[in-house]
Amino acid sequence: MLESAELHFNVDHGYLEGLVRGLKASLLTQQDYVNLVQCETLEDLKIHLQTTDYGNFLANETNPLTVSKIDTEMRKKLCKEFDYFRNHSLEPLSTFLTYMTCSYMIDNVILLMNGALQKKSVKEILAKCHPLGSFTEMEAVNIAETISDLFNAVLVETPLAPFFQDCMSENTLDELNVELLRNKLYKSYLESFYKFCKNHGDVTAEVMCPILEFEADRRAFIITLNSFGTELSKEDRETLYPTCGRLYPEGLRLLTQAEDFDQMKTVADHYGVYKPVFETVGGHGGKTLEDVFYEHEVQMNVLAFNRQFHYGVFYAYVKLKEQEMRNIVWIAECISQRHRTKINSYIPIL
Amino acid sequence: METPFGAGLANILVVLPARLAVIGQPERRRLLSLSVTEKRLWLAMAGQDLRKELDSLLLQLLRDLEELEAKRVALNTRVEEGWLLLAKARYVMGTKSVGPLQYPSCMEPRVFVRASENQDTMQTFRLVRADAQTPEEVEPREAALRRRKGPNKSPEPELSAAPQDPLNWFGILVSHSLRQAQASFQDALQLAADIASLQIHIDWCQNQSQGLREKLRQLDSGAA
C-alpha cells in the first residue's frame, strides 16, 4: 500500500507536511540551550529567545517577567501554529488533529472541575486553561454536580462525548472521583485514537501505533507509581490502565499487584523495550522514571520525521514542541530560584 | 605608715556592703565575723565562682551559636530543595496544575506553634499538629463538665475533623516530586521552630553573661 500513500498524500496534505517540517527545523538546538543556561535573569532569557524562532513573543508582557507568563505565551504561539494546520487541513487529517486536541480538552475539563471544588472563579481558571483544548462549552463545566450531569448538560456536543462510556456514574465530584474521571476519560481517548490510527493503516499506523502503545504503557507505569501510599485501591487502579499498549493483558495484570517500585521494575524487565528504560532510572544525575520516559518519547518522536507521507509528523512536532517548552520553563525556574545545580536536566531534541 | 592591710581594709569596707546586699542573712552574719584576711580570701573565691559561671555560660553560648549556624544552613537547604522539587513537579504534571489555581484562598493550618515558658522565664516553641490528641492543659474533669453542659456550649475547634492533607489539592495521583517537596517543607518548619527557640536561648545567655560581667567588674574594682 506504500504506492498509494506516495501518490495521493501530497494532493491533500503536502503543503501542511512541508510546513510542519519547516517548523520542526526551527526547534531550539543544543547551542541555543547552552546560551539559555548561561542567563542570569529572566530578562536575559527573553533576550536570548528573541534570537531564536520565538522572536518577540514576550514583547507585550508587563514587568515583572514570571515563569508562568513565559509558559502562557509559548502555549499561545504553539496554539496559533496548530490552528493554522487545523484550518487548512482536509479529512482524514482534520479528524487526526481533532484527536490530538482531545487530551488538552480533558485536562481543561479537570482543571475547571478542580477549580470549582476550590471555589475559584471561572474567569481565573479559563485564563490558565490550555488554548489547544478550548471548546465553547468550557464556561459551563463548573456547574455540573455529578458526572452524568456533566455529560448530559455540557459535554454531549463536544468531541469528548464518546469517551464518557465507562465513566458514567451518579457519584458526586470529589477529589478522588475527579482523578478517576480524568484517567478513565484519557484511557477511552487513547484507545479510540489508537483504533483510528490502526484503521487508517499505511505509514501513519506504522509510525503512530508504537508511539501510542508507549503512551499507554507509560500511563500504566506512572499511575501505578503515583498510587503507592494513596487511598486508590488495586481494583480501581486496574480500571484506569489503557489497554492499547504492549503491557496488555499480562503486564497490566502483574502491574495491578505491584506494591512498590522494585516490583514494578520486575514487571518492566519482562519487556525488551522497557528493561533498558528502567535501568537508567536513578543513576548519576538522579533521573526519575518520568524523566526517562520523556527521553524515550523524544527519541520516538524524532524518528517519526524519518518517514514521509504520514500524519505522525504533526503529532510528533506538537509533542517535541511541548518538550521544548518544558525545557525552557525548567531552565527559567532554575534561573529565577537561583538554584543552578540541576539546570542541565533538560532533554535536548536536535 | 600605711600598712598594706590598711588600704585593703578600707576597700573591703566599701566592697562588702555591696556584696552583702546580694547575699542572704545567714551569710552576712558569718561574713561579719571573719577576719580581714579571711574576708579577702572569701571575695577572691566569690570572684572565682563568678568567673567559672561566666566561662560555662560563654561556652554554652558558643555551642548554641554553632548549632544555630548549622540549623540555619539546614533550613536554607531544605527550603531551596522544596522549591526546586515544586518546579520538578510542575515539569512533570504541567505548569498550571501546580499553582495558585489549586489551593483555596483561605486555608486552615495543620500545624500550630505553642509557646511555653520554663523556670528561667525563657520561651520555647513547639510544633503541634492540628489532629493531635486532647491538649495537655485540659484536665479530664473539665472535659467531663463540658460534656455534661450539653449541646448549647460552643463547639471546641480541637474536636472538629483534622484539616485535609494539602497534597490532595493537586489530585490523588500526584508525582513523587510533590510528595518530596511536602516532606522538605515540613522538615524546614520543624527547623524554623528549633531556630526560634535557640535564638531566644542565645539572647537569654547573652543577657546572663552581661549581668555576670557587671558583677565581676564591681568585684574587681572593689578588690583592686
From TrEMBL, chain A:
Keywords: Hydrogen ion transport, Ion transport, Transport. Subunit of the V0 complex of vacuolar(H+)-ATPase (V-ATPase), a multisubunit enzyme composed of a peripheral complex (V1) that hydrolyzes ATP and a membrane integral complex (V0) that translocates protons. V-ATPase is responsible for acidifying and maintaining the pH of intracellular compartments and in some cell types, is targeted to the plasma membrane, where it is responsible for acidifying the extracellular environment. May play a role in coupling of proton transport and ATP hydrolysis. Regulator of osteoclast fusion and bone formation. SUPFAM superfamilies: V-type ATP synthase subunit C. V-ATPase is a heteromultimeric enzyme made up of two complexes: the ATP-hydrolytic V1 complex and the proton translocation V0 complex. The V1 complex consists of three catalytic AB heterodimers that form a heterohexamer, three peripheral stalks each consisting of EG heterodimers, one central rotor including subunits D and F, and the regulatory subunits C and H. The proton translocation complex V0 consists of the proton transport subunit a, a ring of proteolipid subunits c9c'', rotary subunit d, subunits e and f, and the accessory subunits ATP6AP1/Ac45 and ATP6AP2/PRR. Belongs to the V-ATPase V0D/AC39 subunit family. This is V-type proton ATPase subunit. GO terms for molecular function: proton-transporting ATPase activity, rotational mechanism. Gene3D superfamilies: ATP synthase (C/AC39) subunit, domain 3 (1.10.132.50), V-type ATP synthase subunit C domain (1.20.1690.10). The keyword Ion transport applies. GO terms for cellular component: endosome; proton-transporting V-type ATPase, V0 domain. The keyword Cell inner membrane does not apply.
Automatic annotation (TrEMBL), chain B:
The keyword Endoplasmic reticulum applies. Residues 132-162 are annotated as: Disordered. GO terms for cellular component: COPI-coated vesicle; endoplasmic reticulum-Golgi intermediate compartment; endosome; lysosome. InterPro entries: Vma22/CCDC115 (IPR040357). Its main location: cytoplasm. Signal peptide: none annotated. GO terms for biological process: vacuolar proton-transporting V-type ATPase complex assembly. GO terms for molecular function: unfolded protein binding. It is found in: Cytoplasmic vesicle, COPI-coated vesicle; Endoplasmic reticulum-Golgi intermediate compartment; Endosome; Lysosome. Gene3D superfamilies: 1.10.287.3240. Keywords: Coiled coil, Cytoplasmic vesicle, Endoplasmic reticulum, Endosome, Lysosome. Pfam families: Vma22_CCDC115. Accessory component of the multisubunit proton-transporting vacuolar (V)-ATPase protein pump. Accessory component of the proton-transporting vacuolar (V)-ATPase protein pump involved in intracellular iron homeostasis. In aerobic conditions, required for intracellular iron homeostasis, thus triggering the activity of Fe(2+) prolyl hydroxylase (PHD) enzymes, and leading to HIF1A hydroxylation and subsequent proteasomal degradation. Necessary for endolysosomal acidification and lysosomal degradation. May be involved in Golgi homeostasis. This is Vacuolar ATPase assembly protein VMA22.
